Amino acid sequence: MFRQFYRFVVFFFLCTALSHAQQWRTPSLVKPVNGSVDQSLNPIVSWTSQSGVIYNVQVSDNQQFDTYIISTTYKADAPIAQIMLSDLDYLSTYFVRVRVLMGATETPWSAAVMFTTLEGPLSSPRPVAPLNGAVNQSTRPTLSWRGMSDVAAYDVEVSPTTEFSSVSYYAENIPQTQIVSTLLSPTMTYYWHVRPHNESMQTDWSSTSSFTTGVAPYAPMLALPEHEAFVASTVVNFQWQGIFGAESYHLQVSFSSTFDSCIVDRSNISSNSIMQELPAGSLVFWRVSAVNSIGEGTWSPWRALHIAMSTSDVAALVPEPTVAIAPNPTSSLLNINFTLPASGFVRMSIVDLNGIEVLSATEPQLGVGSYSLPMDVSSIPSGVYTYVVAYNGMRTIGKFVVVR
Fold first, then answer.
1. pLDDT tens-digit map of 316-330
2. In the chain, count of helices (H) and strands (E)?
3. Following DSSP, what letter does each residue of 117-172 receive, concatenated?
4. Which residues are registered as beta bridge partners of 170?
5. Which of 132, 139, 135 minimizes the C-alpha distance to 162?
6. By Cβ atoms counted within 10 A, which residue in 202, 234, 338, 398 is the most buried?
7. Which of 115, 122, 99, 147 has the alpha carbon at shortest distance from 42?
8. This prediction's pTM
9. Contact, 247 vs 138, CB < 8 A?
């Protein structure tokens, strides 16, 4: 009888212990969010809880909790318990954890959460971006800094020297805490600092930060329309050579070759061609640049373009060149003789019966007058060929024979 009673008592206490173990769950921290920054010096710590249960909260400045700054207990009365920490330091990283602590019974610790407190008041602005020592930066970087609560404007200085003996960019009385620099040189290290703007006195500069610019794309080679071309349509298809590594292109069209003002200024062009409507009866100039993450490259050499009022205006404005060839047939040299009624670029090509270009030659801009260009055809097989003379958007075509 006694043995049965003893077994009952042991069974009762085991069930009670198991019931408590199942009842007291390991809590999970809700706030602060793990990895959060700019936290108050008196942050709220909250966790999932059970009413009537006592919890142990610890805060340490190291992840191992070898030592702790705060260790306190709290009896929860809601599904989410919370306490306010106090007297933490500026710009410091802390770790917090929590567990159930009911007499001699305790649960495992919750997963620790890390957070960093906010930075204290500054005695001077602090450069933030680009990060100190950053490389492959844009040639027009955005400079940003940590401001001061009682300062309304700032001055910024950028230099290729640590002594700031020469200045590449200077801006003053900036009302915000960032600014886009002027265009800087590629693959060069720059140093910059910032200070509070004060009209009445010279204030101290902040600490110096450095960055190195990358390489912007090369200037594209323009393709079509050709220089000094006459086009009848007011909708022009601009084309240029694509640049490896370019992320977009920038097209400008102006009535002036100095591009002081533009009638077209289109950026973020994703391909190496674009259709653009232009005013009829005008002379315009156009150019293209390539852009990547580093910045915008140099402009291509500009080209002039004549927009006629109609198709008939093209013929009236630009008479076709006079073209003659000799000898025909030929075995070695083909002399292409032509007379230009107006200045322009001339390109000559030889095309076989399959439409494949086998020879070509391009002349720089030529003035009004007569010209003769010998083309060596000794390297191509016997047969019938087509010569093509392209001039100011027009083409003159003829046949000739190569004999051996």
1. 555 567 899 999 999
2. 2, 32
3. EPP---SS-EEEESPTTEEEE-SSPEEEEE--TT---EEEEEESSTT-SS-SEEEE
4. 157
5. 132
6. 338
7. 115
8. 0.44
9. no
286 - beta bridge partners? 253, 303
63-113 pLDDT, tens digit each: 999 999 999 999 999 999 999 998 898 889 999 999 999 888 889 999 999
CA R_g for the chain: 39
- What number of CA atoms fall less than 13 Å from residue 13's CA on the CB side? 5
Amino acid at 302: W
Nearest to 44 by CA among 29, 56, 55, 54: 29
- 288: nearest Cα among 260, 264, 321, 261: 264
Query: What's the distance, Cα to Cα, between the start and end of the chain in Å?
Result: 130
pLDDT attached to residue 309: 58
Closest CA relative to residue 83, chosen from 47, 41, 38, 136: 47
Average pLDDT value over all residues in the chain:
86
